[in-house]
Design a protein that fits this description.
CATH topology of the largest domain: Immunoglobulin-like
CATH superfamily of the largest domain: Cupredoxins -  blue copper proteins
Distance between the termini: 18 Å
Shape: globular
Radius of gyration: 21 Å
């Protein structure tokens, strides 16, 4: 086993990695699982240069190995599904509050994109925004040059420009897509992406997609101004200076929301609104089914800074998938879902009117959707079903289903990722380095790689790996297959992956503000 502690020569030269014009269309690649990430990289794209000899060893997004991997996962019968997306300024009604934001079309979330596993998506993205943008296909194990990370896998799409993302979607599951430039994710630039299983093993009558979000754009503030506020003054910490391990006073100072479920601080931003499918709790959507319907809920957390506790009043849920991959079914009252995670549940609908509640964990607010199967008064924004305080299941309590479980092997390489931060300066780090000064996590094709993620801060970090899924190793070694995992304060999460998807891949905290403030690095394939 190689215990890899890279030195400064491992920092990637992103200019050398690129090599793609912004409008170039290329195919896509293969892997066992799905992953992608979300934090804006445009403002952090400059990296410490490596020597030319070291840079020559990188497997770049345009490398023949990337194209070969795509060819292996693309069958001769794969159909092509063309989609047109336009990122544009839009005026959106959130159910009373009307906001000016950026979106894909005229709605938030954007329109669903759906295709069968094994087929190819060809999404032509037109940028009608005043700023550069990109699209990241979160959770999809796609070819590296289609991953949508400016400065690492592509050049950003300039204002007025376009790019076609073309790739095979190999794995069925619940995914999403969103901008990967700056804080644009915390606007309205996102939508669900569903990859259907042609041999779907689950038995259910209907499905409903539940997109969770926290909202600030167009309320007198923007995500960019929020980031500036955090960087200029940090959070209200009662004068306490926070640096690395010295972050224990944040919650006790009264400046940060806190949650025992999250092990400490619950976020940096108290948003004015929390949404389910683009609506505030005072004007929720209503969805209608018949009593007895076996319903699949595909729950997606696209928030920038908020984990949610989700329950359907009057019902128990059965968790069946996490991040697109099946798990051994678990019955529960509620789920805890972090930013970037997706959890699928099955529920048999009773007769009546029920609240689907997404409690903004630790923030004393919630989002609401009404599920109606019969007569009755609709729940209100103040409704709090007892299920929210019952059995609560997070993804780390799950186990991968047998057919997707990654058997334990001795890793060829281990990377330690220590998650740290300086709250006074609002800088977040991996191994004491911000992204602009990162030390890449080098791997070679075919290796089994172990990631040991240790949280030395007092805030949870949903850590996301692009281009791969990993097998979480719980105490029993039987954790879920995931691409995004919450690492709680003071805890270490160990996860194994197979390095079979060559390229340059982002690893980052899925809190958009933590990522923009530095908590990102790269899993860097070398020859």
């Amino acid at each position: 086993m190689i215990s890899n502690r890279s030195d400064d020569s491992d920092a990637a030269d992103t200019t050398a990695v690129l090599g793609l014009p912004p409008d170039r269309t290329i195919g896509r690649r293969q892997f066992l699982g799905g992953t992608v990430g979300l934090l804006g990289l445009a403002g952090l794209a400059a990296c410490t240069s490596r020597t030319s000899a070291a840079a020559a060893q990188l497997i770049r997004p345009t490398d023949a190995l990337v194209q070969s991997a795509e060819a292996r996962r693309t069958g001769a019968a794969a159909a092509l599904h063309p989609v047109d997306l336009t990122a544009r300024p839009a005026t959106i009604d959130l159910g009373g509050p009307v906001v000016d934001t950026w979106a894909y079309g005229e709605a938030v979330p954007g329109a669903l994109v759906r295709l069968p596993a094994g087929d190819r998506l060809a999404a032509t993205v037109t940028n009608a925004l005043p700023d550069p943008t990109s699209v990241h296909w979160h959770g999809i194990a796609l070819r590296n040059d289609m991953d949508g990370v400016p400065g690492l896998t592509q050049k950003a799409i300039a204002s007025g420009g376009s790019m076609t993302y073309e790739f095979t979607a190999p794995d069925p599951g619940t995914y999403m897509f969103h901008s990967h430039v700056g804080t644009q994710l915390d606007r309205g630039l996102y939508a669900p992406l569903i990859v259907d299983d042609p041999s779907e093993p689950l038995a259910y009558d209907a499905e409903h997609i539940v997109v969770l979000d926290d909202w600030v754009d167009g309320t007198g503030r923007t995500p960019d101004s929020v980031l500036q506020e955090l960087q200029s003054g940090g959070m209200d910490m009662g004068g306490t200076s926070m640096d690395g391990m010295d972050m224990g006073g944040m919650s006790s100072s009264g400046g940060a929301p806190a949650s025992p479920l999250l092990g400490g601080d619950a976020g940096d931003v108290q948003y004015p609104y929390y949404l389910i499918n683009g609506r505030v709790a005072t004007a929720p959507n209503t969805v209608t089914f018949t009593p007895g319907t076996r319903l699949r809920l595909r729950i997606i957390n696209l928030a920038g800074d908020t984990a949610f506790r989700v329950a359907l009043g009057g019902h128990r849920m059965t968790v069946v998938h996490s991040d697109g991959f099946p798990v051994s079914p678990v019955d529960t009252d509620a789920i805890l879902i972090g930013m970037g995670e997706r959890i699928d549940v099955l529920v048999t609908m009773a007769d009546g009117v029920f609240p689907l509640i997404a409690l903004a964990e630790g923030k004393n607010a919630s989002a609401l959707e009404i599920v109606r199967t019969g007569a009755g008064a609709a729940p209100t924004a103040e409704t709090r079903p007892s299920e929210l305080d019952g059995q609560i299941t997070g993804a780390l309590a799950l186990e991968a289903a047998e057919d997707v479980f990654l058997p334990e092997r001795r890793p060829d390489r281990t990377h330690d990722l220590v998650l740290g931060g300086d709250m006074a300066a609002y800088q977040w780090t991996i191994n004491d380095r911000m992204y602009s000064k990162r030390r890449d996590l080098q791997v070679r094709p075919g290796e089994v790689v172990r990631l040991k993620m240790t949280n030395s801060t007092m805030m949870f970090h949903p850590m996301h790996l692009h281009g791969h899924t990993f097998q979480v190793r719980s105490a029993t070694g039987r954790g879920p297959r995931k691409d995004t995992v919450m690492v709680l304060p003071g805890e270490t999460v160990t996860a194994d992956l197979v390095a079979d998807n060559p390229g340059q891949w982002l690893v980052h905290c899925h809190n958009v503000y933590h990522g923009e403030a530095g908590m990102m690095t790269a899993l860097s394939y070398v020859k």
